[in-house]
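Slide 14.
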Amino acid sequence: MADTYGRFLDAALDEPAVRVVVTWGLSDRHSWIVRKETHESKWRTDGLSSRPLPFDADLKPKPASEAIAQAFAHAPATGAG
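Slide 15: predicted structure.
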């Protein structure tokens, strides 16, 4: 999952038109995916819990959080802000 975050952000942040990145949350603690607020057909079938966000339910960073930080640290300067 961390690799997916990193590859996506590397590509997105390389685009000069991208000025902001938005996520639907930071922690799995309050995620609608973890609460299974989707149709059952979209739930994981491998028996593992969903863990969609960069911090776990105890607010501890997961590998995705480091991938996000690295992508921003290595992003080209845009002159914004």
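Speaker note: Residues 2-73 form one domain.
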